């Protein structure tokens, strides 16, 4: 674990001393957009035109943020248009690497051994964290964007005019609801598990865990009458929640101490997790080996031995029984 300072790699764990033991996530740095016509998007100065074969995604199969991008790429049928490189699951003093291993796809674009070399290829004096996902533009040798929330939104629609699979996961009429869900779920669940796991004081830990389970309780009730978070249509809010839920019982319960309840204990959230997992294309994006081995082998401050637990036994292919919930629920 480390970061780049003026383009030079430095090995450093997250600093929580100055924030009362709290893990505070930094904003992503590259914030431009791919758009249908190449006009600038909502953030960043440059617009990048949607073209088949022009872009490349750097991901980790372990990472819930990168996983969002992989799912959207799959659902929108963009595999042939946007290539992928997959880092090794173990992230230690050199950060993400392309060391050989099952499921690792080397960097065919920049020939990097370490992901930080991709960042310095785009910006030689870059200062900041070296995170996945990274959306790379081969035409200008630039990083378009390294913020998953924005990457999935551009993949949702930018390629629609050049034969992406139809499907809108950010429909206009549901946007206010999607924004509200995203805000709550990002803070208390997606990032909440990290705040709990990386906390270095009891107070900071409890401050993250309580709201996390309050939100899960609320979502479980909500999903008792709705197939998806916004009703009968799957949206980006579901994709964003899914990548945390699928890691919850195998990793966050034990490794991050998010153990008041398991997803398996929630009647509706557990069925919802299986329903999303069984949605065409999604299971292929889930690699449990990368997921478990990454967290347990990489975070030596939390798990110094690097021993990876064998359990839990999970059957994500078991029937979910949610087909009947096709009409929007009347109330929570
Ligand atoms: N806000 C970013 C967060 C990405 C992120 O933090 N990715 C993690 C992996 S799960 C990472 O690469 N961490 C490396 C580091 O922080 O040095 C996003 O959603 O894209």
Automatic annotation (TrEMBL):
Matches recorded under InterPro entries: Glutathione-S-Trfase_C-like (IPR010987), Glutathione-S-Trfase_C_sf (IPR036282), Glutathione_S-Trfase (IPR040079), Glutathione_S-Trfase_N (IPR004045), GST_Omega-like_C (IPR047047), GST_Omega/GSH (IPR016639), Thioredoxin-like_sf (IPR036249)
Gene3D superfamilies linked to this entry: 1.20.1050.10, Glutaredoxin
GO-annotated molecular function: glutathione transferase activity
GST C-terminal domain: residues covered: 171-295
PROSITE patterns hit by this protein: GST_CTER
Sites annotated Lowers pKa of active site Cys: 252, 295
Active site: 63, 194
One cellular-component annotation, GO: cytoplasm
Listed name of the protein: Glutathione S-transferase family protein
Provenance organism: Microvirga aerilata
């Amino acid at each position: 674990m480390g970061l780049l300072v003026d383009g030079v790699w430095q090995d450093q764990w997250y600093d929580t001393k100055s924030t009362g033991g709290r893990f505070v996530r930094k904003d992503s740095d590259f914030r431009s957009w791919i758009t249908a016509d190449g006009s600038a998007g909502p953030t960043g100065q440059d617009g990048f035109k949607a073209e088949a074969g022009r872009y490349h995604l750097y991901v980790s199969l372990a990472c819930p943020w990168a996983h969002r991008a992989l799912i959207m790429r799959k659902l929108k049928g963009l595999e042939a248009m946007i290539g992928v490189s997959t880092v090794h699951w173990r992230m230690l003093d050199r950060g993400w690497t392309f060391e050989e291993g099952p499921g690792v796809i080397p960097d065919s674009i920049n020939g990097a051994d370490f992901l930080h070399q991709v960042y310095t290829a785009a910006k030689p004096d870059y200062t900041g964290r070296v995170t996945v996902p990274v959306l790379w533009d081969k035409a200008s040798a630039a990083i378009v964007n390294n913020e998953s929330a924005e990457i999935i939104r551009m993949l949702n629609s930018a390629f629609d005019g050049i034969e992406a699979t139809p499907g809108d996961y950010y429909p206009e009429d549901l946007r206010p609801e999607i924004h509200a869900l995203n805000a709550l779920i990002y803070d208390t669940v997606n990032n909440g598990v990290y705040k709990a796991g990386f906390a270095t004081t009891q107070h900071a830990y409890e401050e993250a865990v309580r709201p996390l389970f309050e939100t899960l309780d609320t979502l479980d009730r909500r999903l008792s009458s709705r197939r998806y978070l916004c009703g009968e249509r799957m949206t980006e809010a579901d994709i964003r929640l899914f990548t945390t839920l699928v890691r919850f019982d195998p990793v966050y319960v034990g490794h991050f101490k998010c153990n008041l309840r398991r997803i398996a204990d929630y009647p509706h959230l557990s069925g919802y997790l299986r329903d999303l997992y069984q949605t065409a294309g999604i299971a292929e994006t889930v690699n449990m080996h990368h997921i478990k081995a990454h967290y347990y082998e990489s975070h030596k401050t939390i798990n110094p031995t690097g021993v990876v637990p064998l359990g839990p036994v999970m059957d994500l292919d078991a029937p979910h029984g949610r087909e009947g919930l096709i009409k929007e629920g009347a109330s929570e």
